[in-house]
Amino acid sequence: LEFRRVLFRSHFSLISTRKSEDFPGQSIICDLSDEEDVSRIIEELIEIQNRFDSLVFFQRSRHHDEKREFLDEFNVSVSSIRAFLKNARLLMSNLGSKSVVVIGSTVTNLISPHASDSYQISKAAQLQLVRYYSQELGPVGIRVNLVSPFTFLKPENFDFYINSNPWKNFVNTRIPLRRSCTALDVINSIEFLISDNAGMITGRSEEH
Fold first, then answer.
1. pLDDT (average), residues 134-151
2. How far apart are CA 190 and CA 149, in angstroms?
3. Could you tell me the CA-to-CA distances from 73 to 2, 38, 116 in Å, in that order?
4. Nearest CA among 87, 83, 207, 187 for reference residue 142
5. Angstrom distances, CA of residue 120 to CA of 6, 33, 51, 103, 117
6. For residue 2, which of 129, 116, 189, 154 has the smallest C-alpha distance?
């Protein structure tokens, strides 16, 4: 819901495997697990000179074929982002904030017993991808940063985390602010990083 509020008050284009009926802006259909399809979309965007002020990546593989799980996860979470960053000079508007934000995870630095190896390896690769392209794109004024949320409250898990005594204990003993992260906290970080207020911030990993 919070992400939708940002989308509705901003001019966004959405790249997704299917069109969302709730999304009011331009929908670009692309299978991010398919490198050829990603290349096709990028070539089309460059050809029609569709320029972006900022790029925000928060995709996740939803394929569950065990034989392709790792490849699909890596293609969606890493290879597709790399393809856009390699072409960022041609995709970004010279008049915009020229900011790229990748939504990662705290498993970029930690090992979780609750997530697959393909997910954790891909998220760790995102961090190095951001570091590399912040150096590569910095000379042309394009900033690249990573936001790494921990588990955050959202409608589908709200009741569980609010009523879970082990979670409350974790929050009170391990999180300095004594509260759980919310989707709005993540959104606020994204909005800051794509704004001119973050004009000298690049190559950073911000954890929630």
1. 92
2. 11
3. 25, 14, 10
4. 87
5. 28, 17, 32, 13, 5
6. 154
Residue 199 DSSP code? T
| Rounded Cα gap, residues 168 and 161, in angstroms | 8
Mean pLDDT of the chain: 84
Q: Which helix (H) or strand (E) holds 131?
A: helix 117-137
Measured between its terminal Cα atoms, the distance across the chain in Å is 19
pLDDT band at 40 (very low <50, low <70, confident <90, very high): very high
Count of residues for the chain? 208
Which residue in this structure is represented by tokens 């790494």? 148
The DSSP call for residue 151 is S
Phi and psi at residue 165, in whole multiples of 5°? -65, -40
Distance CA 120, CA 124 (A): 6
Kindly report, residue by residue over 88-125, the tens digit of the pLDDT.
999 999 888 899 999 998 888 888 887 889 989 999 99
Q: Which of 40, 15, 42 is nearest to 29 (CA)?
A: 15
Phi, psi of 140 (to 5 degrees): -105, 15
Contact 102, 144 (CB under 8 A): yes
